[in-house]
Amino acid sequence: MATTRETAETPPALGFPPIEPYDSGLLDVGDGNEIYWETSGNPEGKPAVVVHGGPGGGGTRGSRRTFDPDVYRIILFDQRGCGESRPHASGHDVDLACNTTDHLLADMERLREHLGVERWLMYGGSWGATLTLAYAERFPRRVDAIVLVAVTMTRLEEIDWLYHGLARLLPAEWEIFRDGVPPEDRDGDLVVAYDRLLRHPDPDVRMRAARQWCAWEDAVIAHENLGSPGQYGAKSETAMLAMVRICAHYFAHAAWLTEWQLLQEAGALAGIPGVLVHGRLDLGSPLTTAWELAKVWPEARLEIVDDAGHTGSAAMGQAIMRAIDAFGRR
Hints:
By secondary structure, the protein is of the alpha/beta class. The protein is built from ten helices and nine strands. The protein has a nine-stranded mixed sheet, sandwiched between helices.
């Protein structure tokens, strides 16, 4: 494990100029689902896939600017139920039974085959880091390199920290979050309680639960250094509802991963170079996870960004772009 430290002394990384996709579409992945995908940059370039966070956050189109468009064939997609994928999980009648980690892994592999990609660089942050790791450990021969940001493995201990443990630091905000569920559920698993509310037949109950969930997420990032207050609450009602429904669904099931699965199976990553970029001040996803992963993945280099939390900083942006640039020159 190699570890470096980065500070905010260098100028901000602005990214490459905005670009538009040269191709896009909806891919039928079964179970009545179609996932949105797009490609931009160089059609003959090095394939790179962006695995978005959430779960259910939808692909951020600005991610195109993280890659040199002359070097990379940039692939973005929206996971099941969110973004421009269909059906959209904001609809109460949309069943999430076929929206699990295994389904998403199969979707990604189907997308790779559809686009004729042999191997790709994978870039994922937060939940996207979990999904990237799960994919790379299942399909290691399809992965050329990995860049992970705000590393998570969606373990029960990580979920418990974010929705219960952080009460130690933000007691007032957490009590509001806790009180968003019925009194009889407040001493139990709040994620499971919110999951039930988000399946409630009353649309007002569902929307209120989604807003309360996002208010808590906003409180966490707002208290980080260089945090971005209001990021979750600024989403449209449909995007917010889809994201929170999917988040609660995944976290109530610990993403269908055993507690130590991604660490125990990290041997599958042997030979795959990686860079892990993590903010030292990340409240919601503490540095421990990235540190533990780097210890069992010899080819991974951990960059700790001293001024960054979960939503990043200029220094974090520069670290990400350096890593991607270096892999583009391999």
